[in-house]
Amino acid sequence: MGPPPRRTAGLPPTHTVLICVALPGLAISSEQGQMTGQGLEGFYCAGRRVLSRCQVRVAGREPLALQARMTAADRARFVGAVHVSPHSGPDPDLVVERVRQADGTERITLHNATPRALRLPVEVSLGTDLADLGAIASGRAGPELPATVHDSGLRWSSAGGNSSVTADPPPADALASAGLLRWELDLPPGGSTSVELRVRPDRVGGVRAVGRTAAGPFAVARASGDDPRLQPLLRTSVEDLQALLLRDPARPSDTHLAAGAPWRCGSAPAEALAAARMTLALGTRLAAGTLRTLARTQLTGPGRQSGLIPGARRDAGPHLPPGCTATEATLLYPVLLAEARRWGLPEQETEELLPTAERCLTWLRTTIGDGTYLNDPEPGGLARCETQAHAHRAALLGADLLNVCGRPGGEELRQWARALRTAFQEEFWIDDHGGGRPAAARLPDGSPVPYLGAAAVHLLDTGLLGGGEQAPGLLDKVRTEQLARLLGGPALDSGWGLRSLGTKEPGHNPFGHRSGAVRVHETAVAVAGLAAAGYEKEAGSLLRGVLAAAEAFGHRLPEMYAGEQRTEASTPLPHPAACRPAATAAAAGVLLLTTLAGIRPDAPARSVTLRPLRSAPLGEIVLTGLRVAGAPFSVRVSRLGLAMVEEAAEGLSLGA
């Protein structure tokens, strides 16, 4: 299960930097374009900073920064201007464009804006500490290392590794003592010339990003319609997902998602499974790779942890102790397998992965024993609301999977799920004058933890059974309606999305990552769950809020942002430590758009059911290039909320 999370005070802020990602490569830059070695700035490979400083001077002057923007998930463009003539007036003589990529490449282009030829000295000052990201984040990075002249550039060495920078064209002069490369460049009137720098770790070739392989695991989908924000959100979400892909070293053909950059570029099983589940409409290849990768980490053999998929602890906010992501991942595994099969995962792959899912379900039954609730693994651990929701969904979808695959154990899971549902409604529901609410948790002595937070949205995430039907949830119709009302109320709906803790609860903090900030993943789960349960007003309000926030963030959703109340003149406030891109936030963009069409496939039965939002909160929407049953799938939802399939696999019928 991993050790408790180590709290780190004062992480360097990330909300104003540009983060180019193509794992294992990162390039983190300020909006000035110059890499000064301050904070997190630098090129990284596999968590180590291979270049921390890259400063350009033209004719002895630094370019005046004019613009900095991301042009793709792995690429940023910086534009600056330089005055090189003392009597040229206010107009710049030279435009300096820098295109920086996560793979360690930077192209510096000088454009002569004058009607005369220019001969200019250009200097690039380089340096690095070869520090790892953890040391940099905690302020423990060492001083810059001495450089040596190497090939057509410079090289640095330490006990932790080596890195080098080569230049094309080669510099006229390289000064190792100053970490300096120099050129004399000739620019004709109105002409341009370029220098390309390549940063390489440990004498190897370029960083090969997983997401830049030939096909990738995602379908080439498009979104169009009345709202012009649809396609930018989908395109950016898929780009971010591609950028966060990791290979399993044991089987490089299997890919899964890192949780987010820059802080969580390694494996995070619960987030990887959740993100793969939200992107099933783009194909099942990511789900299959994630499931195979995590199957190789599952604990086997004797003992209470047999069947568990290991995971770290996760902070749960001010009211509860840290939660166990191992429990969450173990419960998500059979759910993802069952739903991936409905979307079109081949039967052969389902059979291959089924034993791992069975061990997850056996762990669930063994851990519960004769009890009713799934408690935290510590002795005397409490029972969390969302854990019961995850366990109930795993039991029902797992039982359905076992049944269709001819395996035993399904009826035992269904019996426990029924007992849990009965007990949950009696013992987890807190009655009050406002209609009641679910408890956030139940302590070992049976007393409830009464605060209202976004974790309750998982009660609406029931999962997909055969025939396109939603599995029953833990709440009855009356309590589901009350929960929908609470989720749509002002205490939780910030206007930008769902707050992680209600404004009236003790300890509320609009920037608290589990105590008031908007977490995009939970908001997307809420939108999908509310839509499936028929509460379109509340779903539409949250959907429009996140879409507005996405536009404010350039359609690249961070994992969270402040839960400040939206006003006509406001924009969402960034969280200074949020990962951006983040796997669950990027995948949430996909889920939000596909929820509008309400696609419920059953590939083994060769059918698909559409349950679109009848209110059509974004007007007409057309989704093309999705994948159902291994083939392209396209759907149109009209302004009247009527859905029509425009492309589908041969023989795929539209269910009622």
Can you characterise this structure?
- The chain has 656 residues and is α+β, with helices and mostly antiparallel strands.
- The chain is 27% helix and 27% strand.
- The strands form ten sheets. Strands 7-8-9-10-17-14-13-12 form an eight-stranded antiparallel β-sheet, with no helix packed on it.
- α3 (269-278) packs antiparallel against α4 and α5 (325-343) runs parallel beside α7 (385-404).
- Mean pLDDT is 93; it is low at 1-8.
Helices, strands, pairings?
Blueprint: E1 18-22, E2 25-29, E3 35-36, E4 42-45, E5 48-51, E6 53-58, E7 64-72, E8 75-82, E9 94-101, E10 105-112, E11 118-127, H1 133-137, E12 147-150, E13 153-158, E14 161-168, E15 173-175, E16 180-187, E17 192-201, E18 222-225, H2 230-243, E19 245-248, E20 251-260, E21 264-267, H3 269-278, H4 285-295, E22 313-314, E23 323-324, H5 325-343, H6 347-368, E24 383-384, H7 385-404, H8 410-427, E25 429-430, E26 437-438, E27 441-442, E28 448-449, H9 477-487, E29 518-519, H10 520-533, H11 536-552, E30 560-561, H12 583-597, E31 599-602, E32 607-610, E33 621-628, E34 631-637, E35 643-647, E36 653-654
Parallel strand pairs: 32-36
Antiparallel strand pairs: 1-2, 2-4, 3-6, 4-5, 6-11, 7-8, 8-9, 9-10, 10-17, 11-16, 12-13, 13-14, 14-17, 15-16, 18-33, 19-20, 20-21, 22-23, 24-27, 25-26, 27-28, 29-30, 31-32, 33-34, 34-35
Helix pairs in contact: 2-12, 3-4, 3-5, 3-12, 5-6, 5-7, 6-7, 7-8, 10-11, 10-12
